[in-house]
Q: What sequence folds into this?
């Protein structure tokens, strides 16, 4: 089941986040984004629509984005295997399942910016 909160925010301005979009786009065919969230979660509703818009602007293919809907007890597919405690959590992996970076719930910048910065460091 997909997350309504991952539906791209139509008012998100890609030009304002050009560097983040460029970084995500540069790796759009080599990384997999798994997003754990819940449409009931206020943090998910605040953060994920813009992240969905960033992935769309970076032309990340749908088959490279996995949306995992968790219940209000934060239970769902992969929660235990990935040690998911807070949502939203976004895990970025290579095709062979190697975790590159992980965004957990709340950083001081939006998920797309934070992940792009981390990807620049890890993949440079």
A:
């Amino acid at each position: 089941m997909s997350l309504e909160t991952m539906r791209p925010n139509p008012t998100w301005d890609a030009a304002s986040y050009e560097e983040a979009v460029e970084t995500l786009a540069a790796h759009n065919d080599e990384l997999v984004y798994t997003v754990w969230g819940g449409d009931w979660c206020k943090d998910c509703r605040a953060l994920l629509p813009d992240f969905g818009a960033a992935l769309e602007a970076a032309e990340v293919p749908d088959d490279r984005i996995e949306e995992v809907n968790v219940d209000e007890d934060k239970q769902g597919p992969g929660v235990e295997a990935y040690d998911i405690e807070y949502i939203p959590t976004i895990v970025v992996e290579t095709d062979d399942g190697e975790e590159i970076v992980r965004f957990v719930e709340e950083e001081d910048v939006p998920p797309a910016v934070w992940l792009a910065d981390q990807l620049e460091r890890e993949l440079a």
Summary: The mean pLDDT is 94. DSSP finds three helices and four strands in the chain. The domain at 4-123 is CATH 3.40.30.10 (Glutaredoxin).
